[in-house]
């Protein structure tokens, strides 16, 4: 049986706030789009982090979030394009490239990447 949760979003770039009800069996980004709420996105498959938000309250389940390290998830970041709500939520959009820089900026240009892109070590 589908459960519905409330979500309150502060879109920092647009200086706009939204509140909606979202089902627990649909991706959050898709559900919001169907309700006319447009937020930043690009790949729609959990890889690019364009749709990342900082979670201020609540819990998001996203086992397909391959572009987000466990460390950043623990710090409160989530991806709306592959995320399902597991409680009422309060989130805010990230600054442009905020999550990408947090995740990869410390490696690129610093000579630390030897064999691929590290996600969860350190
Ligand atoms: S749109 Fe690319 S990770 Fe969500």
TrEMBL record:
Its cofactor is: [2Fe-2S] cluster
Domain 2Fe-2S ferredoxin-type per the UniProt entry, residue ranges:
5-97
Q: Which GO terms describe its biological process?
A: electron transport chain
The record's keywords, sorted A to Z, are: 2Fe-2S, Electron transport, Iron, Iron-sulfur, Metal-binding, Transport
Q: Which GO terms describe its molecular function?
A: 2 iron, 2 sulfur cluster binding; electron transfer activity; metal ion binding
By sequence similarity, the record places it as follows:
Belongs to the 2Fe2S plant-type ferredoxin family.
**Name under which the protein is recorded:** Ferredoxin, (2Fe-2S)
């Amino acid at each position: 049986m589908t459960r519905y949760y409330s979500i309150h979003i502060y879109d920092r770039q647009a200086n706009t706030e939204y509140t909606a009800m979202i089902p627990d069996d649909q991706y959050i980004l898709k559900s919001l789009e169907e309700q006319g709420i447009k937020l930043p996105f690009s790949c729609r498959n959990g890889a690019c982090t364009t749709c990342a938000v900082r979670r201020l309250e609540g819990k998001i389940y996203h086992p397909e979030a391959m572009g987000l390290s466990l460390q950043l998830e623990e710090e409160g970041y989530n991806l709306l394009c592959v995320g399902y709500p597991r409680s009422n939520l309060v989130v805010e959009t990230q600054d442009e490239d905020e999550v990408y820089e947090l995740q990869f900026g410390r490696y690129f240009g610093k000579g630390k990447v030897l064999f691929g892109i590290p996600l969860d070590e350190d």
